[in-house]
Design brief:
181 residues, three-stranded antiparallel beta sheet, three-stranded mixed beta sheet, 3 helices
């Protein structure tokens, strides 16, 4: 079975489910199935060359759904009643924690919708990140201009402070109009 991220299968190992991907092995820690039935489900190796009349396991059928939809994820079904989540997408894997097959299929559907929704919302993230970058550049250039003007401001104030006072009144005081309220 080929997905965008390579050929992958899940098999049971002591202390969790090991996901084998090409020559890389990744172990999901503390994800031990709690029933004999669950162990059978997450241990099966999807076989792309299985005869069409042979019944596929739920894990194989779930993976086949992702492959048909062009979603470059690998399904791992590791029932875990202690998980606060039904499933999640992490490091190229769609991990399902539900115990029953019915719940697992519902979680798969939910996670597929979420994956597809990311394609829509990524436009907003791109726009927002571009906006943030533009604001940061503008803020930086204004800060630099401000810092460059400080020596000039200090010099003007210092020179004016040292200049002898020649007039007893404030310049432009007579030209100011009184504002009526």
């Amino acid at each position: 079975m080929q997905a965008a991220c390579g050929s992958t299968y899940a098999r049971k190992i002591k202390g969790g489910t090991q996901l084998s991907k090409a020559s890389t092995n990744t172990t999901l820690p503390n994800r031990t199935p709690t029933s004999k039935d669950a162990i059978g489900r997450d241990c099966e190796k999807p076989d792309a060359e299985a005869h069409s009349t042979q019944r596929r396991s739920p894990l194989q059928r779930m993976q086949r759904c992702l492959d048909k939809l062009g979603i470059p994820l690998t399904v791992a079904w590791t029932p875990n009643s202690n998980s606060a989540k039904h499933g999640e997408i992490e490091s190229g894997f769609l991990i399902i924690y539900d115990k029953t097959e019915t719940e697992a299929w519902a979680t798969l559907e939910h996670e597929v919708y979420e994956w597809k929704l990311r394609e829509v919302t990524c436009v907003y993230r791109t726009v927002i990140n571009s906006l943030i970058e533009s604001v940061e550049k503008l803020t930086y250039s204004r800060k630099e201009a401000f810092l460059e003007s400080l020596p000039h401001v200090s010099e003007v104030i210092r020179k004016e402070k040292q200049r002898p006072d020649r007039s007893p009144r404030i310049p432009y005081a007579s030209s100011q109009r009184k504002i009526k309220h």
